[in-house]
Amino acid sequence: MNQDQFLLYDHNKQINLKAERVAFYLQGQILEAFSEKNEVYYLFFYKDQFLTAAKAKKLRRQCYIEHAFKEGMVFKSPHPLVDILLSSNHPCQKISFHPLLEKLDKHYSPQEKAVILTFFESFIPKKRLYKEMTSVYYEHRRNGQYFSAYRIIQILMDFAPNNSMVKSLATDMDFKKYAVLYNQEPEKLLAKDPVFAEKMLYSQKENDKDFHQLVDLLEQESRWMNLIALHIHRLTSTPSYGCYAHLLRLLDQHVNENEALYVLEKLSSQLPDFDPLQKDLLNKYLESHNVNKVFHMIQSHDFKINDSSTVHTLGAMLEELDLDTSIVNPEVLPTLLKQYIDLFPEKAEIVLNKCVISLMKTHDLSHIQEWLKPLKENHKNLQIFGKINTMQRIYEDPDEMQSLGELYYEFSQLDKAIECFSWEMELNPTNPKPPHWLAKSYRDKGMNDESEAYQQLSIDLQKGLSG
Q1: How many secondary structure helices (H) and strands (E) does the chain include?
Q2: Dihedral of the CA atoms 441, 446, 449, 452 (nearest 10)?
Q3: What is the pLDDT of residues 238-248, one digit of tens each?
Q4: What is the CA radius of gyration of the chain?
């Protein structure tokens, strides 16, 4: 995922661009990008192959670009489809109109050339584009290729529907039999005019039959990026396991693991209730031990995790989890912990101690007692329950400050332990035990001078008692 920033080459000049979004629309892809000066550039692709780029000042209304971003399948950058489109066409070299025409004549059919020319009406005068397209039409007609000529008329009817000449050509009696064909179902047109048939199928892609015919067409032409885009669009509008399974196969065949994961994560936010996707994501996070994402998903979704291997994996992650730096909400943990310690009771004391140590930094003892309640059912004899209950019971008893401090020390709450030992030392200034524990606590905090001072005090008090 590193193609958010890229270079466009314009003769001897390099232009730094940042990809904003891409639209997959019929045979074309339009990438919108911004320069460091906030200038808008559009990069044009035909069937995934780079054509050229243009800096936009103002777009014509109802132009191809406007249609692409309104009616196409649009993906915000960063996105794997943006990355792959750019990396597979590197370097992207901007060319002017005449070299573009030469490129089109060399690499594309006359019909494809006419389609591609429609992309540029915001950058090249429409009359000039119209002239190029009608020249293709007349060449076919002169050669007696009437059906090929009529295919160009169909493109012109979209490009300049109000042009009197186009209207006249469309009703020319020489083309009547072809006009009838274009009023039929798109599958009857696929063999004769796949470009127009794709347009019809695309406009009706929400219909199951047309969707599957469009998939077949894209597969025949090996346009796998369009297939991925189409299946993502289909899933977000009409989620189904069949479409999802097809998308997974496409991702497995054509993108790497990180790119596939990114696509699924993007879809996850759009399809929070589509269980197959959410469970697949959870499994991927489990496999990669992505602790925060695993617990975020479990917190966000009502997953029922019953198999022991998954519970074991979750438990191992719980043992590794740093609650102090994690984004995991501690309130979601008891449900997971219960499953884990019920299956693996020998792990219970270790894991619960770790959780309680973290919780003590931000929560009081009564909250921790409530937090532990769901875990008691099958584990009442665990020491940690007794320790927390004891701490809560003696918390405000001045005669129990030494015991409370020792328990805080056991849970690594050194500041709270020091507070208790200091209080106990004030109440019993001749007792060597509080300064002994203060020495241990300060040593653990790395405060060696204080530790040594209290250790000496403890020794002196002990001598006084023995003397």
Answers
A1: 25, 7
A2: 40
A3: 999 999 999 99
A4: 35
Examine residue 317 and state whether it is found in any structural domain, yes or no: yes
Question: How many domains, in total, are found in the chain?
Answer: 3
Quote the tokens at residue 116. 């591609």
Which pLDDT belongs to residue 367? Answer: 93
Are 5 and 92 found together in one domain?
A: yes
- Mean pLDDT of the region 6-11: 91
Q: Which of 79, 96, 113 is the last residue of a domain?
A: 96
Listing DSSP states for 96-163 in one string gives -HHHHHHHHHHHS-HHHHHHHHGGGTTTS-HHHHHHHHHHHHHHHHHTT-HHHHHHHHHHHHHH-TT-
- Token digits for 235? 């899933």
Average pLDDT over residues 11-40: 94
Q: What's the domain range around 345?
A: 305-377
351 pLDDT above the threshold of 70: yes
- In this structure, the answer to whether residues 362 and 401 fall within a common structural domain is no
Neighbour tally for 215: CB within 10 Å: 19
- Residues 402, 359 share a domain: no
Instruction: Say if 274 falls within a structural domain.
Output: no
Per-residue model confidence as pLDDT tens digits over 360-398: 988 899 999 999 998 888 888 899 999 999 999 999 899
Establish if 388 belongs to a structural domain.
no
- What is each CA distance from 375 to 296, 304, 336, 354, 455, in whole angstroms? 21, 17, 10, 14, 40
What length does the chain have?
467
Q: For position 458, which CATH number holds?
A: 1.25.40.10
Cα–Cα dist 204/189, whole Å? 15
Q: Are residues 90 and 10 in the same domain?
A: yes
User: CA 196 to CA 202: how far, in whole Å?
Assistant: 10
Question: Which of 2, 29, 41 is closest to 85 using CA atoms?
Answer: 29
Whether the Cβ atoms of residue 119 and residue 44 lie closer than 8 Å to each other: yes
341, part of any domain: yes
DSSP 333-399: HHHHHHHHHHH-GGGHHHHHHHHHHHHTTTS-HHHHHHHHGGG-TT-TT-HHHHHHHHHHHHTT-GG
CA dihedral (237, 241, 242, 248) in degrees, to 10, reads: 90
| Same domain for 350 and 410 | no
Considering the chain, what is the average pLDDT of its residues?
A: 90
